[in-house]
Write a sequence for this structure.
């Protein structure tokens, strides 16, 4: 079982990893330990691999810092569900292979602390007796995620998504 | 069907006519990265892509601005790694003290009308000040651009801003930028380009203020057409022009004749008030600087307000010029002396305290009024610190009074 960590709207990348915790500033530290270190310290302390993030509008706005996504990847976040995502964050998350869904029904239904099972291969999220269908991702996003991120994608196919 | 400026630029880059919503793979003209992320990009290139060679080293630019000069052994070592890499690969590098990447690339005319500039920094929208398509990307995308010379993009829809009238005294481009954040909100331009029209008269420094803040509405790019007063210095290619038939996703009209000084209130950029609503709020630090408002013109506005006066007691005024050239301009005509005599302190040109890493990091009790572009919780230091964003004129008036003040009432 995985835990739901629910957030509000406009969670900026300074909340995910403050610039003061960048790998540049702390080269010997694991940036994964800095995930939500100030905005949600209990996440930083106790989030487990497979846990999911659920948020309202505009998740990941602000800085282009990929280490915010890298921190979530190191924590092995299972997926991110939001009403909407900020552009650069969405792209960075796909690039690093983190599944993310614009999923209003799931966002509305799930509450902080819910225990769920995420079944991405079968497109389902299960909470108790309830089964939610995961929305279908755009093709380029599916392709990047199934390769495991943009670098494995480019290494595998020798081109970018959509490139002839 | 007509084309927006983004459609024109990305069509030219793709070698075919493209529309908003299309996916393109293009070769960016310029790939910028700074000291904060270049060390990590080098690591991705070597360790994840397993290559050492950069496809077009002449298109890369490195800038040392985020922690400049280095503040720790770690940042010093990381910077030295970047210097070695630049030397080995013959890549242009702007050293510590030269200034903020977004300012330097415009000064050096590396960013030019019609160019595609990608940067490892969300404020890469700034290059739209000279009619370039500038956009920020993460380290992995930048590493791939180094390796392949290419990147992929979805051609954005465009939100058109039509500006009418002229600024009244005490009001400037920062107030317009904040007013737009207030109207359009923090994600109202997500995935879009913002095009700013009706501004042929607007000087370059003001265009840079606007374009840098496009990303604060979620925008992918923010482009001021390279027409009017900057056209001689930044000539546009023949294929780039305002197309009256262009299709916009949305149009927002702003009339400057009734624009008041605007202040962004903690902890969101689009949480904007008229200065009169927050006047009297006590502050401990005033910061004048950044890619948004650290140019000579900004320093000059502050100096004109502070001339012959002193910063209020109990308040620090920290000034970080956007570049060595801007600093020198302020030195030559005495602007700098006016500021120093008023009690300001000066730091090395660069990003300064904007992201809370050095040169003025905020403590728990601090209340900062800043000319920067972000007031997120913890952005400049302690998450308990409070950050207000405003124009250089409001900043100078506030420095004088020790409380947020309206420059028109001095």
């Amino acid at each position: 079982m995985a835990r739901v960590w629910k957030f509000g709207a406009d969670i900026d990348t300074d909340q995910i990893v403050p610039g003061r915790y960048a790998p540049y500033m702390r080269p010997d530290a694991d940036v994964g330990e800095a995930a939500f270190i100030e905005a949600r310290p209990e996440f930083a302390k106790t989030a487990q691999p497979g846990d999911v993030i659920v948020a309202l509008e505009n998740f990941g706005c602000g800085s282009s810092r990929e280490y915010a996504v890298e921190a979530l990847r190191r924590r092995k976040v299972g997926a991110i569900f939001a009403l909407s995502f900020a552009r650069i964050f969405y792209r960075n998350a796909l690039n690093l292979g983190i599944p993310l869904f614009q999923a209003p029904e799931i966002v509305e239904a799930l509450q902080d602390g819910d225990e769920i099972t995420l079944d991405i291969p079968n497109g389902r999220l299960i909470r108790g007796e309830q089964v939610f269908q995961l929305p279908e991702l755009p093709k380029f996003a599916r392709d990047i995620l199934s390769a495991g991120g943009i670098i494995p994608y480019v290494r595998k196919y020798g081109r970018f998504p959509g490139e002839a | 069907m007509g084309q927006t400026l983004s459609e024109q630029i990305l069509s030219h880059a793709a070698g075919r006519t493209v529309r908003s919503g299309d996916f393109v793979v293009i070769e960016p003209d310029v790939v910028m990265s700074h000291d904060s992320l270049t060390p990590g990009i080098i690591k991705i290139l070597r360790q994840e892509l397993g290559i050492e060679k950069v496809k077009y080293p002449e298109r890369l630019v490195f800038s040392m601005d985020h922690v400049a000069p280095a503040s720790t052994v770690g940042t010093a070592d990381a910077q030295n790694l970047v210097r070695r890499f630049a030397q080995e690969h013959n890549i242009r590098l702007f050293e510590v003290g030269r200034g903020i990447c977004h300012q330097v690339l415009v000064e050096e005319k590396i960013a030019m009308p019609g160019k595609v500039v990608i940067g490892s920094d969300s404020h890469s929208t700034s290059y739209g000040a000279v009619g370039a398509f500038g956009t920020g990307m993460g380290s992995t995308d930048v590493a791939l651009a180094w390796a392949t010379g290419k990147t992929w993009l979805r051609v954005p829809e465009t939100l058109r801003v039509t500006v009418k009238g002229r600024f009244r005294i005490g009001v400037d481009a920062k107030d317009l930028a904040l007013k737009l954040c207030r109207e359009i909100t923090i994600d109202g331009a997500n995935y879009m380009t913002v095009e700013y029209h009706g501004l042929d008269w607007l000087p370059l420094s003001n265009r840079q203020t606007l374009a840098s803040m496009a990303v604060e509405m979620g925008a992918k790019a923010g482009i001021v057409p390279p027409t009017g007063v900057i056209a001689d210095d930044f000539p546009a290619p023949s294929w780039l022009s305002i197309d009256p038939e262009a299709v916009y996703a949305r149009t927002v009209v702003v009339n400057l004749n009734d624009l008041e000084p605007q202040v962004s209130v903690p902890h969101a950029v689009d949480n904007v008030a008229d200065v009169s609503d927050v006047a009297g709020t006590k502050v401990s630090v005033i910061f004048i600087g950044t890619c948004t408002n650290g140019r000579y013109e900004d320093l000059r506005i502050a100096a004109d307000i502070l001339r012959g006066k002193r910063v209020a007691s109990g308040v620090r005024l920290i000034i970080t010029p956007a570049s060595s050239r801007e600093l020198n301009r302020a030195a030559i005509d005495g602007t700098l002396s006016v500021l120093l005599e008023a009690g300001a302190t000066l730091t090395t040109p660069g990003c300064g305290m904007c992201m809370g890493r050095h040169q003025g990091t905020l403590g728990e009790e601090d209340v900062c009024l800043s000319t920067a572009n972000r007031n997120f919780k913890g952005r400049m230091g302690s998450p308990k610190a409070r950050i207000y964003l405003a124009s250089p004129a409001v900043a100078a008036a506030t420095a004088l009074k020790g409380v947020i003040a309206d420059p028109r009432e001095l």
Observations:
- Chain B touches chain A through 52 residues (CB under 8 Å).
- The first strand of chain B starts at residue 23 and ends at 26.
